[in-house]
Amino acid sequence: MSKSAVVIKGDGTGPELVNAMVNVLQECHSKIDLIPCDAGSEWWTKNGGSSYISEEVWKLLEDSDACFKGPTTTIPTPNAPRSVAVSIRQKFNLYANVRPIKTYKNSLHQLDFVCIREATEGLYSGIEFKIGDDAAIAVRKITRKSCENVVRHGFKVASEMKFKKIYVITKRNILKETDGIFWRAVQDIQAEFGDISVEEYYIDNMTQQLVKNPERFNKSILLSTNLFMDIVSECASGHVGSIGNVYSGNYGDEYAMFEPAHGSVPKYAGANKVNPVATILSGALMAKYLGENDVCDAIFAAAEETIDEGKCLTYDLGGSATLSEMADEIAKRSKSHLP
């Protein structure tokens, strides 16, 4: 029986990027039943409501094995809904956001590590309120259970990848209670993985080290709470050539969502201009999650070949190819890597 995945086309450049990703999967003869749908700020602007996601789409999500979220726009005003990504992460308890940082041949730094982020709470819990005309409070909610979930996932990924080191990022000297809960979860779970060592970095020092000497983190996991790792993984992404190359997966116990790490870039919507790599590789991760390992491996090999060769690259990578030209090149090469 084939697996099914809801595919949210998204906002701005989302639909054209998602179409490119779907085409690559189809060229690789993926058997996943892809179910396209609309969600995001453009849908909400037309239809209104309390969520960027309709009841019909929620039902599709609940009935599927996984979902793919194209880039969506989150309107930064108090009356707008919480983001599509946060909504889905919280609904399905997708506690682990996994964002690999792996550079290509011509990069200034040669990097290979993985950023893992707790993705359901922290300052992204959405608990904030005004306490006066000129003051407001946001609550950083940290729970033992969510910390244990993402920490155990981090150790499991390290074990699977044969990494022997996890760097835990906190600001525990200031945030003694909330980061203290996270750190205690790390200490307790490390005992189950005795061959993996742990080192703690404070968030401010970590960002400096990622700029100054990022190679020190190769063959390791970077692990932290929601906002801190969002910032750290974005900083690390700067070494990969373009945020347009950075892909991710969000994992829970029974469901997963896959998405490129970048935004919807509405100014380029319909221009056939932006980099499709992050979207395509996120789709490849989804194929792996749904059991199509050969499809995933073929797409990753094709993307690496295309970038390393340097002849068919979008503007952000120093080339002049269109979105569709680069996607077609990856699709063509992917087929040659299939068994």
Structural features:
339 residues; alpha/beta; Isopropylmalate Dehydrogenase; 10-stranded mixed beta sheet; 11 helices; globular
How does the overall form come out from the CA principal axes?
A: globular
SSE arrangement, N to C: EHEHHEHEEEEHEHEHEHEEHHH
DSSP strand (E) fraction?
A: 15-25%
- In CATH, the architecture of the largest domain is 3-Layer(aba) Sandwich
| Secondary-structure-derived class | alpha/beta
Q: Please tally the β strands and state the result.
A: 12
For the report, how would you describe the main beta sheet? 10 strands, mixed
Main β-sheet, spatial strand arrangement: 2-1-3-12-11-4-5-10-8-9
Please, what is the CATH homologous superfamily of the largest domain?
A: Isopropylmalate Dehydrogenase
Distance between the termini: 21 Å
Domain count:
2
Q: Name the average pLDDT.
A: 96
Gyration radius, in Å: 20 Å
What's the CATH class label of the largest domain?
A: Alpha Beta
- Fraction of residues in H or I helices: 25-40%
CATH fold name of the largest domain, please? Isopropylmalate Dehydrogenase
